[in-house]
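Q: Protein A?
A:
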Amino acid sequence: MKGHSPKQNIEQIKSLIQGFRANLPSFRDEQTPEAVVRQEYIDPFWQLLDWDVANSAHRSAAEKDVVIEATVGTIEDERVRSRRPDYLFRIDGFPRFVVEAKKPSIDLHSDKDAIFQAKTYAWSAQIPFVILTNFEEFRLFDATIKPYHSEPNRGLINEFDLRFEDYITQWDIVWKTFSREAVADGSLERLLAKIKHVRAGRRIRGIDRMLIDLRGTDPVDRVFLKHLEDYRLRFARTLFEENRSNFPEANTRHGAARLTEATQRLIDRLVFMRVCEDRDITSYGNLRDIVNKASENRLDLYSEVTTEFRRLDAQYNGYLFKAHFSEQLKVSSELLADFIRSFYPPDGAYRFDAIGDDLLGIIYERFLGSVITVD
């Protein structure tokens, strides 16, 4: 299809639509695998937009246009475990947008898990657009704003909230926006400028870069930094209130530094553990399981967490989990559980397998640049 115009392949789109309509009842059967719809309809759809889905040009892994993830199960303990999206579309190796494919038995308007899963990766990876599709529906979302599980339509771009019957009438605008040629020519930058109401003549950064200079965006680095700062303040307050005898000079520079250290060590350890989970270094959901176990058995959560710290110290033998005075303090179980749950769906939108090491480093550099004071 390479080099074709939208008019040249409109007949193929009509054929796809007709075939899909004829088989829709069987596709809506929950037993129909997602891979069937992907291979027979979603892949050809993008090929008609001149994307080399099959990598027929034999580009290297770093240069191929479309990175396709294998179909894997995502339901774990009745919650959706985040994973990489089904398709990552790139130009010259730079991400432009992602596509999450679902089978037609999933309602892309009401299934909050599916929508949230699609958004969180793109938002965390700073890829401005994500498409959720099962071919029956095609839904484009602005991924520059923080996703919330309770607000599935947050960021929906109504112009591209389509059903498969719309593909023929809307093919020209779909081509001008999502064909490989159009994307390489800056169509998505123009779309972003349009939905962010950027004044005419103003240039915006390429979408492969951070978009922190645009109004109406929630960059993951800013959101995550504020998240950590808010919880550090909450932890510092409760640590001081419940452990005053351990901080007798908290209103002095030295005493405040000790309180800062205790708070920082606790947060650093928990964030490190969640990063390891998302990057498949440790079992996913381990921290959450500790919270649930403590709640179900009415155990002190911090005691259970410090037991895990001791185990990790023996495993890694590093500085982070080395025995520390903070382990002897009292920590609010409610606050601790709240912080841990804020890193898991549906409460949290962070994808630590998508947030790059360089960005995490920048966030932590800013985070460590401030200290706690006691008035």
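Q: Protein B?
A:
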Amino acid sequence: MAAGVKGIRVYLDRRPREYAESITRFQDVHLAAVGELESSFRGELELYESGVYSTERGEGGGEERWEWWELSQGVEACCLLRSEWSEYIGSAPNSEPETYHAPLTEYQEGLSKGYTEFRRIYDEQYRLLQHGTYANTLAAAVARMPNARSLGFFEYDKPTEMELEDSLVTSDYEALSQLITRPLELEAILAEGEGAIASEDCTLAWELPIALHKAGVGLAQVDLRFCLQYRSFSALNPPNQTPADHPAPAAWDDLAATYQNLESFDMGVTVLAPNVPKVKTPDIDNFLGAILSRCGPHLRLLRIDFTNVARGGYGVVGDYNTGPFLRTLPALPRIRELSLNSLALPHAALDAFCRGLGSELAYLAMFDVWLQGGDWADIVDTLRGKMATTRSRGAVECVFNGLLGGEFMGVVEPAVLGDGEVDEYEVNRGEMHQELVDAVEGYVQGLLDENPLRNGGR
């Protein structure tokens, strides 16, 4: 059985200390979800009343999930839950629900049981993550799996809204109690405004790979798809030092050695910095730079996606400047698949990176890449040349969308927000912009003979 294991997938169950130690905060984060669901129920009821949905299934213009009476029952359940939970939390002295002496209703009993179980699991998790116990134990097990060469970190799959709907509409109190014991989803935590996330799980991003390396496990493939926090990098920095640009050499060296034979690196990381100055970004640069600094000769696939970087908002084009850690990359002579998404790059960094690519490149994708300073024309010529060898052997694939900066600045306009304010990052890309992007895509793939960015980019 051990020989059949190909890799390890780690799902991060977020049970922050702040919610395990406060039933009030625990209640609030779940009440927010109930409030959203209640609004959804009411919206569906309005559709019934407007005639969009019929009172009989299979008729009318919509595809209703619930009958009218079921939606009404759902709204009533949401209101009752909110009222009973608030009474349970608010009536107890010092908000300590265990001192609440009135008989508990079924919703209150569900909240009490759910919170107790949530805290029990948190305590177990906390003990397991302390002193590298989890990382070292898992590494010792993987060392006995000779073909386990991949590692992935993923966010916990959140409960579906449908599960919460079902429990309220059908008054399934036990199902509701079990739902609220699950890990909290990242969006729900952030919606409270403080972004309180325990950092213990984030430290696994380096503790586990280093433990695997020390146990003799050679990693060839790594997927990182979870939230990185600035404050969680303190374990990699020297004690009693706050500057983020002075990491502990031994820790970073261990991380670099762990990934030195990496062949595939796929990263779609959310980087969150609530109430933290941007000066902390060198932590992220050092982390990614250490991962990629020694694996250049072996790397075949590289995907870097910062679509979900949140620094003042989601989906901001070019919000994360990847120049610092991109410059730490050596040449990538064996790279076959390359994808860059939502990056801001100085011209010198992107130009040097592209020149370091080998001649085996067969797939290239760039989405919302913002070139800061300089022009795209020479970079596009370089990329076309890098795909020439594989193009001569067969089809290559190139996908560009949302290229910005350089020659493209003349064919986009800043987006105007609802109040008339101009957002310099979110841009309107008209037909002319897309036509130029499509032409560049065709040129790199060898479908056009002349660089469309020459002669004024027209």
